[in-house]
Amino acid sequence: MFTIYPAIDLRGGQCVRLVQGDYDQETVYGRDPVAVAKRWAREGAQWLHLVDLDAARTGKAVNLPQIAAIVDAVDIPVQVGGGIRDRARIEQLFALGVQRLIVGSAAIDDVDLVSWALEAYGSRIAIGIDAKEGYVATHGWLQTSDVHAEKLAQQLRQRGARTFIFTDIARDGMLSGPNITAIRQFAAASGGEVIASGGVATPAHLAELKELAEKGVVGAIVGRALYTGDVVLSEAQEMLAKE
Description:
Layout (H helix, E strand, L loop, with lengths): L2 E9 L2 E6 L2 E9 L2 H10 L5 E5 H6 L5 H10 L4 E4 L5 H9 L4 E4 L2 H4 L1 H11 L3 E8 L2 E4 L4 E6 H10 L4 E6 L11 H11 L2 E5 L5 H8 L6 E6 L1 H5 L4 H10 L1
Parallel strand pairs: 1-4, 1-12, 4-5, 5-6, 6-7, 7-10, 10-11, 11-12
Antiparallel strand pairs: 1-2, 2-3, 7-8, 8-9
């Protein structure tokens, strides 16, 4: 089943969107993230995708109250990423009722933490791999490593990772369409289930991604296009169900 994940990016307690992860190119789409979450749930979302942008940048869980409130307010599973770099944060977020956590920078910085998390929580841990020209970007995309995205995925798959969230930074927030070639290659290399992120601007883009289901692409995160109305969640889900 192909799943659309409405994105709620949190910064300073508000729902925002960035362009290519640039904190200086921010648009506020909702001052009440709980109301935004309820809207997507009401429109038929099966999951929500939350990112704590402040935590991704600084490591501080500034938006923890908003995450807790969203989890309490909706009856659908929530996955959370951003600044998850130690056991305490992982246990804290799971205690709030979060269904799945996305470990990003720690996949490079702290292999022992990732191994522990995968062993302790299994499929409730997803690996977020954000690629800039093929290489992994970390810490809120402020740093680019010398690690190739596909190679990292293969290494983590051997450690038990099953779910990957792959973001092509060049496409994020640009409404320019997903990088189908890169997503296909990443899915093939990882051997796991891949949720694509970045660039979805139309229902047709979602249909393109669904065609990669046989390659392991099981869903797509949609942000700006939902907030601008270029993608209507209920209509897009109905379209995908018919295909």
